[in-house]
Queue: 2 jobs
Job 1
Amino acid sequence: MADKVRVALDAMGGDNAPGEIVKGAVLAVNEREELSVFLVGKEELIRKELEGQTYPKDRITIVNATEDISCDEPPVYAVRKKRDSSIVVAMNLVHTGQADAFVSAGSTGAVLVGAVIYIKRIRGVERTPLAPLIPTEKGVSLLIDCGANVDAKPSQLLQFARMGSIYMENVVGIKNPTVGLVNVGVEEEKGNALVKDTYPLMKEMKDINFVGSVEAREIPHGAADVIVCDAFVGNVILKLYEGLASTLVSKIKEGMMSTTRGKIGGALAKPALKKTLKQFDASEHGGAPMLGLNGLVVKSHGNSNAKEIKNSLIQCITFVSQDIEGKIREKLGASAGEGDEN
Amino acid sequence: MADKVRVALDAMGGDNAPGEIVKGAVLAVNEREELSVFLVGKEELIRKELEGQTYPKDRITIVNATEDISCDEPPVYAVRKKRDSSIVVAMNLVHTGQADAFVSAGSTGAVLVGAVIYIKRIRGVERTPLAPLIPTEKGVSLLIDCGANVDAKPSQLLQFARMGSIYMENVVGIKNPTVGLVNVGVEEEKGNALVKDTYPLMKEMKDINFVGSVEAREIPHGAADVIVCDAFVGNVILKLYEGLASTLVSKIKEGMMSTTRGKIGGALAKPALKKTLKQFDASEHGGAPMLGLNGLVVKSHGNSNAKEIKNSLIQCITFVSQDIEGKIREKLGASAGEGDEN
């Protein structure tokens, strides 16, 4: 069926594989009938997990892959060498057009590297950023890039701004999304060499809604819909979000438990508190798309459970139905023959 | 008296100047008799603030300075041009040996730039980092650098590691403090160009207790006593700390107020909650020292009140009595004639 969205799912990736991954696939195909899933990994293990589950048999297909890639392996070596790993086999399904998207909760490094090797960049796209949604006071912002491009160039940050805007507008549904550049001050002359070189160029871009520099302090307040930075800075922001939230929670608990009054209050306030903190957990906001590829890649958290895998699969439907790939190709793509693929 | 610690205090700097600044000086000299303070700024304003206050008259001296430097002015231009500003006059007191230290809650940019111009670097010190203490689960860590060195070199990060270790050991009192390098992963081959070049050199340093790369996620958990990074990354970390803490607090309040049960619980838990969050407020942990200068500079928060100014002044006593400047000179200083001063 042409209107179906076909996702290759890495059944072996993540802390809870294959059990939760397989369950997530079952949940997703039961919820959305336009979805079909290739469960890629060790056939006998997947088959065992599927036993007793109820789902439309024609929309889940097992694709055998015998090798494993662990998070500890050097990614470049692993994806080049282990051609029969679930990651490489699944990516090849996308490359050959048998699947529209690839979802994995496995090694981030292997996914980032493998995608460029096997799925390949859209011609004209310089680098393919990984762009998770992070929670803010106002909702969510797209943090682009948190991937492998730790030493980025201005032209790459400009492309991140464009791709991030397309994603936020068409997948998250924010009209004319604002774009901010992470900086150490709001003045144009502030910043390191990369940001100083990028700022004037970004300011000139007509097809994005650039609102200037954004200090890290303002990110949690929802300073911009698309937060642009190199992947080193993006990683620091993403991981500090995780670390600070968990530390604050434990400190708050500790503080409450130190007095009787606090203990009673804490017990009463617990459900509200829990809900709030859940809302502010970066891992609650679905998988991170990797943009600019010939096909979609979604990196789900390593500790993803069935629900998170289901959400990542459903995310692919919007991505494909909104033709994000086509829109990126249209805005950033080079005409045939131009650009590089690797 | 030789055993006195003499601090030049910018009476005009910060949101609450001169009132809270002058009060802070009064509190400090009343608390510590080895301290004397030069209140630098508009004489008539300072005199008015001192009226009715009780303090040992011989330990507070007003030094007139007629010009103002605001936070909006380009720092380099301001400190070069406004020679009669409180910042420049106070720094000259340190440069000429009349004061041991300079404390300001004024323009960070002007303080950073002015210190290098007027107080000057110790010969052999390449760059002078600003190093605030940030709260962690275990206590505090020194985040070095959060100053002006947004495009740092490996040799500079190595010096930051040394200076930070000296500070944590002698001022904060942590024996053999651990040093971590901010990175996107813990493996030696991870990182951007700067971190990759720095890591092997830092690993070879015999006079610091290097524990390897530290991911931003681990910083709030207290991963290392000294957290080394370039000032761009340091600023992102420091400001995200501030932004996330305040956002989480407002989210938690909102969450509690959404149910009756939460409201009651919140009211009961409020004191414990407040104490915890205060403990995790980066601004509660004193001023940030600027290290590697011929004299001490402490940057207090822009919104410092009298108590915070008092704490910054008292911090100078430990710095001077522990001879941090001499220890840095001994470890990093070049012999006379070597090194650069500007």
Job 2
Amino acid sequence: MNIILLSGGSGKRLWPLSNDVRSKQFIKLFPSEHGYESMAQRMYRQIRELDRNAVITIATSRTQVSAIHNQLGEDVGISVEPSRRDTFPAISLACAYLHEIKKISEKEPVVVVPVDPYVDEDYFFALTRLCELAGTSDCNITLMGISPTYPSEKYGYIIPRNTSEISFVKSFQEKPDKATAEAYIKQGALWNSGVFAFRLQYVLDKSKELLGYDGYKDLYDNYDTLKKISFDYAVVEKEASIQVMRFNGIWKDLGTWNTLTEGMEEKIIGNGRMNDSCRNLHILNELNIPILAMGMKDAVISASPEGILVSDKEQSSYIKPYVEEINRQVMFADKSWGSYRVLDIEKGSLTIKIGLKSGCRMSYHSHQNRNEIWIVVSGRGKAVVNENEKLIQKGDVVMIDAGCKHTIIAETEMTLVEIQLGDEIYIEDKKKFTLN
Amino acid sequence: MNIILLSGGSGKRLWPLSNDVRSKQFIKLFPSEHGYESMAQRMYRQIRELDRNAVITIATSRTQVSAIHNQLGEDVGISVEPSRRDTFPAISLACAYLHEIKKISEKEPVVVVPVDPYVDEDYFFALTRLCELAGTSDCNITLMGISPTYPSEKYGYIIPRNTSEISFVKSFQEKPDKATAEAYIKQGALWNSGVFAFRLQYVLDKSKELLGYDGYKDLYDNYDTLKKISFDYAVVEKEASIQVMRFNGIWKDLGTWNTLTEGMEEKIIGNGRMNDSCRNLHILNELNIPILAMGMKDAVISASPEGILVSDKEQSSYIKPYVEEINRQVMFADKSWGSYRVLDIEKGSLTIKIGLKSGCRMSYHSHQNRNEIWIVVSGRGKAVVNENEKLIQKGDVVMIDAGCKHTIIAETEMTLVEIQLGDEIYIEDKKKFTLN
């Protein structure tokens, strides 16, 4: 099976656990054998368990590459969008990547799947079925529609010609009001899940026809000039040869705290406790500070180095404008080489905790306007400062003046405290070099 | 006026803003001209504004001395209890201190006042009056009783002989149920505020008679052997020559989050915001992480490095057992020389932020089982390590091996990051030395 996992989205609706560099699909929410896993990890594992040989390509933006490598490993196929251009350019680029880099035949079916719904095994069986249909049917596009469980005003609806399991599509309807949604459902309408399958050739042709570029390099190099347009709008809604497959299994959109907590198997993740008078309360705590809740009802408490949200569940869906007002310095991030977390901000200094994975290293870089001091708190490795190498271990201190090139190559897992000192400290003050 | 301010109490009911080394009276809650002030600061300032020459002695335990000096300055009179022995030994020791150290005549009246009620100017006029009464009346003890505003089950009641402003006391009643409280109030009963006045000689005599020791040194040296007993129980309730003065002004006991927030003039202290659907919500945030509250009603959110409490206000009065279960490492403290705050705890290391006041220094000390590294983040001063002095400033690093004596003397206000490294890190691993 060839799968394009769409991993986009900003981090505002699930603040403070998501941020500008960690979208909601990377929040670790679901208990598994190996600790908590994120939506992305869960979906990736579920696909792998069903089909060990699935060719999975993650279509994503540059900002998410580190998080993907951190959570899914270095071997995962990634089609990196040079800039944000909505789903049609993203899917076009990923299809070209599949064809040229992964050498997938243009005759093979491909299924496009958003990374963030909460689903179980049935969903993946349905994906396999969908792929088979796309490979054998005469239709250009095969959609997966979700059997609605209530007349939602949040989703787009697919109106099928008839109510059989597989049907031609009659029309698409945007988010309706409740009464209209009820009328649609009576006609057998389905929620548009954003899942669809096609033969690779179909999208390669569409890209060439509608975007005017042919092939991976051509698309990649001209990506910034492409028009922002969704695949639904550019292709799906204009396609006459289109069918939909009905899916009756579990499918939950975890886009707000309200819906996300519905998908959680545990009431408390992280250091938290609640007294007996709490009802329908969820606590998600990524701080190392304990949370105690008393008498809270229908609420969510979530905490990270970026902020603490205490919200009535229903109210939580209105979070976006408030988060936009909060000064959101990125306070934590997963990187391909490990992770970092801001411990303290002071005028003229920033204290950061850095975790390096065994065998990994951060980029070789310098800063123009700040000095840095590293203190090794655990583990051992090699510091390189202006080409000079030095073995370092717990208790060692490395001083890096402004302008010095520096990196650490971790021999074991390592923890550092980094102290940045300068009148102006900003993330863009970073110049990267090649380490010989 | 001679005042003994009783500053006792543990920090459990107002967790996480109070802890084992910061009792509730040191939480900065009240806006003033010079930023927020604590109950202790407010009370101290209010007394000073009324009577510049008041002799104020704070009776307190060893653990609070640093916080008192930090908040009230170095000049404040403190009678330090060598151990916790309840109010009769504490008041006896403070009276001996007043007589011998402060040279107050045994004929002078003294008023004992708990440090933690929320009061206004009228209360201090009443204290002056109470002192005058104690100095002129034939009664041995003059109590201040609070006119009840509702039939509380939380307070002890004083039953006076009659309902005039000043009356002999008929009896004392422990915390009654509501119906009984209503009956008491009909008789003119008053809440026992814990405020009382007497001539110094009276308590000096009582100490000798009931505790068996005479004079400050004698009491201090034998303090650990004294029986734990309250002044109310040992003296007040057994005294026949006793009167009560009625007080009708503002008096609020701020002992729980529920009552404390009633006394707050502002809804939000620290970095917090709430949306329009919040009602009767208070946010107290001592973290540098923003709090966003949405749709919360009748609740309190309070946060410090020690924990985050999210509680229904009424439920917050049941906090004590839950806090006892939480592993409460002291995560912040005010010291006479400044303050500290734990930034990060890791197996084998602890990262701390230290603030030193200009001209101050921490004790000259060593640790047996840990190395320490200081990084100066702002300011300048002098580090002393094993008698070697060195001027240090922003960006300098001081390495202190286990066993080395060390301190910093701040020339300006200073901020340090301290990294402790060792297999066993514990607060008791500290040996103090005299710095020549």
